[in-house]
Amino acid sequence: MKVKAILADLEKKHPGEVEYHQAVREVLESIEDVYNENPRFAKAGILQRLIEPDRIFTFKVPWVDDQGNVQVNLAHRVQYNNAIGPYKGGLRFHPTVNLSILKFLGFEQIFKNSLTTLPMGGGKGGSDFDPKGKSDNEVMRFCQSFMLELWKHIGPETDVPAGDIGVGGREIGFLYGMYKKLAKEHTGVLTGKGLNWGGSLIRPEATGFGCVYFANEMLKTKKESFKGKKVAVSGFGNVAWGAAIKATELGATVVTISGPDGYIFDPKGISGEKINFMLKLRASNQDIVEPYATEFPESTFHKGKRPWEAKVDIALPCATQNELGKEDAKTLVNNGCICVSEGANMPCTPEAIEVIQQARLLFAPGKAANAGGVATSGLEMTQNSMKLNWSKEEVDQKLHSIMVNIHEACVKHGTTRDGYVDYVKGANIAGFLKVANAMLDQGVV
Ligand code: NDP
Ligand code: 2IT
User: Fold this and answer.
1) What is the pLDDT of residue 285?
2) 204-360 is classed in which CATH architecture?
């Protein structure tokens, strides 16, 4: 079956699941040539088997709020593909969570995890639970009820969840506590754990650090670096935090962060105590960045706007999917931006990517640039299996070399005739080939 027909079939089968269609379309269009070159792929139905998850668990999560009212949320775990290792991928708690979003994230995760070179399959899960404004006790009761169902389907060699939007150290703690009690074991079933109970150093920073390491490798190909550059970061969560720290460390000035309410422009740079303030904002469960401008009067708050209108050299979208559209991309290009590296999953729309690539900017897709998070989760799993902890330097060095290797793989598979590196194509092909060949080896299962 041809790629176009497979896509048409998928869209017919799952009408309205737009994020899912978007993610599958991008991968299938990138790998069409390598897929057609090897008839064994079509004969084994590799694409038809790859685009549908192995299975999806859907369950309700009843819990009691602080007023004594019963609340009910919906949750899913999508176990996508385990050809190269146990299912692996984060949990997202956000009111917008639905199956289309979790399938897009799970599908992307297969190729991202393959790129890390570590033995991890792809999966994703989450719930439409909104952590905004909830007390710690409410979050705990929700997480416990969520795990009461999920624990039956996961395990250190089966499926290893982690964090994503709305799921950080606090939530992983509550989830792990309940798992441990039910399963009567202390294992690496979740990653992003606390340092005292099996977590890895550098895991919290890893996604943002990796995104900057990857961008730095791209910049090197143009004999450029972060030194002296102005950087726009979006979001103010875990990924934005790590990216802001590392970009600053490499000599750049991070001039923006953003929330659903708007963005902060700080010409002096968001570093040091300002990053700590950003962490406090995130932890307050309010989901607004506006108070930053009151705290640091040299900065300005731009209500309802996105940071892409700021004049910067490098853009690191680290908030959420489809947060950087065609017009934003045009503005970045017109302002002389040279590099866009996706810290979030699918933050740039396909139209934005087209504008960025046509202008020949350096562009890194999330599945390559944000793979440092899950790669360090993989390193956490290894440490758990060995029952040993590596030092900060060891983990950081491993993370760095993984990002360098992913960059090399993208260059190998994505360099076009005129020498421009299409990192989207490179990442998709490199990620796909490893999984597809593993599936061929393992027969029709
Ligand atoms: P966090 O929950 O820590 O932060 C996400 C932040 O982005 C939240 O503050 C969220 O606010 C905000 N946000 C959402 N929509 C917008 C918007 N339209 N404009 C500005 N800000 C917005 O999540 P993470 O930092 O963990 O995740 C961020 C992205 O990185 C996601 O795409 C995630 O999938 C991806 N990622 C995360 C990894 C990890 O290890 N954590 C690894 C790889 C990728 P609100 O809740 O109100 O929407
Ligand atoms: O999107 C992602 O790669 C993550 N949220 C991290 C997944 C993980 O298993 O660490």
Assistant:
1) 80
2) 3-Layer(aba) Sandwich (3.40)
